[in-house]
């Protein structure tokens, strides 16, 4: 069992334990069956990493996909029969315990937040994790650890979506899935850019979406957003409508962003994305997919937006580490208003 020593600058207290509690899954399957609490050795950070004392972990739909192994196509990279890495969780907020020798922007005692990304081995659902310093930024002073842990992946996706589609003053933007993790942040950021935002969500969350800056809210149970209106940009976080129906309300030179892991059990959203790509080739409408790899620079931007009062993080609920499977199950419903966070 390794202790966090070597080429790191450590904090004086508290002492680093020999093992830490962590939530892992050794196989894919139903969330309640595969996610369990265990004890792991304390990781040893590399020279460009920090040892982080985790205080909170935001749960995203991607964490659910990675635990269940659905859609199955992602097993091609994450492990065909069983996960290559047992760790779970990507978003994180915590306190730097020790910093590798090559880390210049973080020191022991710093309160930070960030996202490790699915390709990295370790999960963030552990008391101590080794995290590359390049995916962490100082936590906004006005946010709790819980709020900061809810920010990274959803905030980054919201930021990138608006940039990719060049949303600005006067843009008519429709967000399908406006009340969830990404939706509730994109609505606020778009409003800040001067866009005219229409949000689609359940009636239960309509008031929240309106209060975050949507000019108009469509309750998907009583109105079909593909039947009327015209939008310059559509961010589709749900992918529950036919492509040709969504394109009907997209402006002739509009941009449609396909942003969801939802779809069939094997290929997930891939067939729809392929159709979107082909349709884009023979149309003036742009249909795009975009990905988000985390980087400190954009987390600093998000922190600045929070500090400036332009972005508020809504946390629907928190769960302690030992109830992490319940947090995942809640996210899997696809009906969380804001974010769900696991606390340590
Ligand atoms: N491009 C990337 O790199 C990237 C990064 C992160 C995530 N994603 C993807 O983005 C998607 C959204 O993530 P998220 O964290 O925002 O999910 P989420 O928190 O689960 O939000 C889901 C949203 O969908 C709404 N919704 C559910 N059923 C609906 C329906 N029938 N019609 C319209 N809206 C409906 C929910 O509203 P109600 O609760 O009001 O029903 C809620 O607003 C996920 O599939 C995820 O895989 C992509």
Question: Any overview of this molecule?
Answer:
The protein is α/β, with parallel strands linked by helices. The protein is built from 11 helices and 16 strands. The protein has helices at 31-34, 61-68, 75-78, 145-150, 152-164, 181-193, 206-211, 243-248, 270-281, 296-307, 324-332, and strands spanning 8-10, 19-24, 36-41, 49-59, 91-100, 111-115, 128-132, 136-138, 172-176, 196-201, 216-219, 231-236, 250-258, 286-288, 315-320, 339-343. Helix 5 packs across helix 6 (181-193). The chain starts with 7 loop residues before the first strand and ends with a strand. Bound molecules: NADP nicotinamide-adenine-dinucleotide phosphate. NADP nicotinamide-adenine-dinucleotide phosphate binds at residues 60-62, 153-154, 157, 176-183, 200-202, 204-205, 220, 237-238, 240, 259-262, 290-292, 334-337.
């Amino acid at each position: 069992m390794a202790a966090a020593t070597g080429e790191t600058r450590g904090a004086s207290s508290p002492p680093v334990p020999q093992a830490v509690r962590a939530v892992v899954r050794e196989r894919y399957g139903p969330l309640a069956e595969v996610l369990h609490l265990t004890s792991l050795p304390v990781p040893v950070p590399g020279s460009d990493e920090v040892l982080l004392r985790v205080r909170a972990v935001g749960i995203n739909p991607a964490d659910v996909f990675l635990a269940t192994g659905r859609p199955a196509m992602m097993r091609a990279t994450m492990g065909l029969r069983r996960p290559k890495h047992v760790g779970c969780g990507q978003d994180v907020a915590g306190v730097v315990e020790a910093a590798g020798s090559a880390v210049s922007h973080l020191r022991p005692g710093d309160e930070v937040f960030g996202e490790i990304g699915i390709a990295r081995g370790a999960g963030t659902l552990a008391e101590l994790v080794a995290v590359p310093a390049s995916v962490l930024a100082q936590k906004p002073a006005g946010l709790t650890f819980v709020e900061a842990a809810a920010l990274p992946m959803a905030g980054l996706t919201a930021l990138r979506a608006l940039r990719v589609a060049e949303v600005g003053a006067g843009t008519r933007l429709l967000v399908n899935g406006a009340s969830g993790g990404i939706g509730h942040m994109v609505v606020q950021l778009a409003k800040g850019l001067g866009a005219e935002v229409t949000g689609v969500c359940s009636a239960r969350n309509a008031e929240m979406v309106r209060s975050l800056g949507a000019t108009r809210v469509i309750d998907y149970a009583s109105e079909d957003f593909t039947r009327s209106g015209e939008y310059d940009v559509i961010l589709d976080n749900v992918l529950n409508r036919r492509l040709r129906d969504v394109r009907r309300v997209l402006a002739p030179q509009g941009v449609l962003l396909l942003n969801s892991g939802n779809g069939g059990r094997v290929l997930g959203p891939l067939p729809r994305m392929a159709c979107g790509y082909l349709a884009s080739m023979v149309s003036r409408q742009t249909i795009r997919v975009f990905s988000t790899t985390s980087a400190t620079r954009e987390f600093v931007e998000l922190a600045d937006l929070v500090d400036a009062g332009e972005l508020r993080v809504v946390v629907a609920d928190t769960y302690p580490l030992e109830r992490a499977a319940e947090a995942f199950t809640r996210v899997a419903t696809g009906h969380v208003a804001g974010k769900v966070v696991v606390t340590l």
